[in-house]
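Q: I'm writing up a methods section and want to include an example of the input and output format. Could you take the sequence below and give the corresponding predicted structure tokens, formatted cleanly so I can copy it straight into the document?
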Amino acid sequence: MTTRNVCISLALVSAAACGGSGGSTAPNNQPTGNTAPSVGGISVTNNSFSPSTKTVAVGTAVHWAWNSCTGDGYSGQLCVDHSVTFDDGTTSPTQDQGTYARTFAAAGTFNYHCSVHGTAMSGTITVQ
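A: Here is the clean output for your methods example:
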């Protein structure tokens, strides 16, 4: 095998190491495959939620999608763990890829943060 083929193979293995499994968002707040957030969803990036505040109607499912892997595919990928942890104790798994959804059945203000990064990485869902 040539040096070029070895480099390409290593790059593919590095990229696959941070890849997600396929799947869809489960209604019971379970993580699924790595996908972009749905329209109006929240992106979990390195050290922030985007957008960090969101207002929704009662009964709405809010979806978070992890987009926290960086790298160029040649020097490897760096994937950072994050969670969506609410003040009421509801939490997603700590993960570096995938999605999470929570349906809000009652009106109120729901503050959340990343359990890894604390309140420096936080957000708020307002349910009306």
